[in-house]
Amino acid sequence: MILAETLLFSLSLVDCGAILFLLVYFIITLSDLECDYLNAQECCDKLNYWLLPKYIGHSFLTFLLLLHGQVILFLLNLPMFIWLSFEYFTVPQGNFGAYDPVEIHNRGQLKKHMRDVMIYIGYYLIFFFIYLYCFILALLKGDPIRRGHEDLIVTEI
Question: How do the pLDDT tens digits run along the chain, 157 residues long?
Fold first, then answer.
């Protein structure tokens, strides 16, 4: 193991929280485009700029879980890693990125992007609470209350 388990899950919480904030930004930006507060070029530039940090954040978390032997969490994160890799690396030729200003209003692309971001938010929200649960379990590893002595709480673990 490279890091302590508590540090692993605290990093997971921070990473997942940062991605959640980023996804809320995606929702706000797409909503602004839908209401015509932003033009398509501005919106797509803003969204495409943050695709790589989102991908790097999730990739870092996935590989960190693999390195620490958290196989179940790694396997649960793997489908999203594969999907984000597919989304990032299969941009059609001629497009500026996954969010293209020419095609975002065509064939319901805007609704598709909104749906995808909402699915991402649900996924990361569930995993935020899973990581929180694992973090609390890692903090409470061992017996914090000595059973032989009543009213004695151990402060060092």
Answer: 667 888 999 999 999 999 999 999 999 999 999 888 888 889 989 999 999 999 999 999 999 999 998 999 999 999 999 999 998 898 888 788 888 888 888 878 899 999 999 999 999 999 999 999 999 988 887 555 555 555 656 566 5
Do 6 and 138 form a contact (C-beta atoms < 8 A)? yes
Please give the model's pTM, rounded to 2 decimal places.
0.83
Q: Count Cα neighbours of 30 within 13 Å in the Cβ-side half-sphere.
A: 23
Distance CA 11, CA 15 (A): 6
Burial class (CB in 10 A: 0-12, 13-18, 19+), 23: buried
Q: Is 156 left (phi over 0), alpha (psi -120 to 50) or beta?
A: beta
